[in-house]
Amino acid sequence: MRKFGLLGKKLSHSLSPLLHNTFFEDMGLKDEYKLYEVDEAEINNFKNYMLENSIEGVNITVPYKKTFLDKLDYISDEAKGIGAINLLYIKDNKFYGDNTDYYGFKYTLTKNDIDVKNKKIAIIGKGGASASVYKVLKDMEAEDITFYFRKNKLSKIEFPENIGGDIIINTTPVGMYPNVEDNLVSKEILKKFKIAIDLIYNPLETKFLKEAKENGLKTINGLDMLIEQALKTDEILYGILLSTQLKKKIRKKIKKRVEEFYENNGN
């Protein structure tokens, strides 16, 4: 049995085991995907912990996406360009880092037929997730990109009066369960855009997306990005390329299970 997991600080609401276990089941694998909650004081020992416990790879979430950048043998070009890794794995006794959020966001745009070239784009937030989004947008030839963010968690974003454009993307956790009534962007600002994308997937429709939809915008949540980055993780860890047909089948099964999970947990 091969061992994988998710590394972070607070992971009780994570859907990652559900995603990867669905993949294992579909591929007839008996491998495991566990949650590893680690405190900052212990994080520098985690590579040794992986070796001692035969853990071959972990996805990484906040606050550790930049922790291992200068501690690995090899880092992918995407992860270097983003300045964050969300996948740490061991191959031939060497430590590798990658960023599968990049592939997840790119898939989200492609699936929804969103052409970002020559579009005016607003990114809400300046954290690790925004860096992945920015790199994808630049690689897809977007040029007019502006970041809007809070000075601290208690402040509001100071939007200019003439704000407007084609696409507005929330890369912050504001609006995520359980704080579902939170939203950084007013209806008045949302009205000035055509497409709203939220990287959040819990709930599937945040207040940001709900108000965008009410004002006539096309809306896209973070579920496709979540599923695609998980499938890319599994492709890297197993050294395989999944066929389009198989990916479609697994995506469908995961989506169904995620929706059932939310229904059963009341959020």
TrEMBL record:
<dbReference type="GO" id="GO:0009423">
    <property type="term" value="P:chorismate biosynthetic process"/>
</dbReference>
<feature type="binding site">
    <location>
        <position position="222"/>
    </location>
    <ligand>
        <name>NADP(+)</name>
    </ligand>
</feature>
<comment type="subunit">
    <text>Homodimer.</text>
</comment>
<dbReference type="GO" id="GO:0005829">
    <property type="term" value="C:cytosol"/>
</dbReference>
<dbReference type="InterPro" id="IPR022893">
    <property type="entry name" value="Shikimate_DH_fam"/>
</dbReference>
<feature type="binding site">
    <location>
        <position position="77"/>
    </location>
    <ligand>
        <name>NADP(+)</name>
    </ligand>
</feature>
<comment type="similarity">
    <text>Belongs to the shikimate dehydrogenase family.</text>
</comment>
<feature type="active site" description="Proton acceptor">
    <location>
        <position position="65"/>
    </location>
</feature>
<feature type="binding site">
    <location>
        <position position="229"/>
    </location>
    <ligand>
        <name>shikimate</name>
    </ligand>
</feature>
<feature type="domain" description="Shikimate dehydrogenase substrate binding N-terminal">
    <location>
        <begin position="6"/>
        <end position="87"/>
    </location>
</feature>
<feature type="binding site">
    <location>
        <position position="199"/>
    </location>
    <ligand>
        <name>NADP(+)</name>
    </ligand>
</feature>
<dbReference type="GO" id="GO:0008652">
    <property type="term" value="P:amino acid biosynthetic process"/>
</dbReference>
<feature type="binding site">
    <location>
        <position position="61"/>
    </location>
    <ligand>
        <name>shikimate</name>
    </ligand>
</feature>
<feature type="binding site">
    <location>
        <begin position="14"/>
        <end position="16"/>
    </location>
    <ligand>
        <name>shikimate</name>
    </ligand>
</feature>
<feature type="binding site">
    <location>
        <position position="86"/>
    </location>
    <ligand>
        <name>shikimate</name>
    </ligand>
</feature>
<dbReference type="InterPro" id="IPR013708">
    <property type="entry name" value="Shikimate_DH-bd_N"/>
</dbReference>
<dbReference type="Pfam" id="PF08501">
    <property type="entry name" value="Shikimate_dh_N"/>
</dbReference>
<dbReference type="InterPro" id="IPR046346">
    <property type="entry name" value="Aminoacid_DH-like_N_sf"/>
</dbReference>
<feature type="binding site">
    <location>
        <position position="201"/>
    </location>
    <ligand>
        <name>shikimate</name>
    </ligand>
</feature>
<keyword id="KW-0521">NADP</keyword>
<dbReference type="GO" id="GO:0009073">
    <property type="term" value="P:aromatic amino acid family biosynthetic process"/>
</dbReference>
<protein>
    <recommendedName>
        <fullName>Shikimate dehydrogenase (NADP(+))</fullName>
        <ecNumber>1.1.1.25</ecNumber>
    </recommendedName>
</protein>
<feature type="binding site">
    <location>
        <position position="101"/>
    </location>
    <ligand>
        <name>shikimate</name>
    </ligand>
</feature>
<dbReference type="InterPro" id="IPR036291">
    <property type="entry name" value="NAD(P)-bd_dom_sf"/>
</dbReference>
<comment type="pathway">
    <text>Metabolic intermediate biosynthesis; chorismate biosynthesis; chorismate from D-erythrose 4-phosphate and phosphoenolpyruvate: step 4/7.</text>
</comment>
<dbReference type="GO" id="GO:0050661">
    <property type="term" value="F:NADP binding"/>
</dbReference>
<keyword id="KW-0028">Amino-acid biosynthesis</keyword>
<keyword id="KW-0560">Oxidoreductase</keyword>
<keyword id="KW-0057">Aromatic amino acid biosynthesis</keyword>
<comment type="function">
    <text>Involved in the biosynthesis of the chorismate, which leads to the biosynthesis of aromatic amino acids. Catalyzes the reversible NADPH linked reduction of 3-dehydroshikimate (DHSA) to yield shikimate (SA).</text>
</comment>
<dbReference type="GO" id="GO:0004764">
    <property type="term" value="F:shikimate 3-dehydrogenase (NADP+) activity"/>
</dbReference>
<dbReference type="GO" id="GO:0019632">
    <property type="term" value="P:shikimate metabolic process"/>
</dbReference>
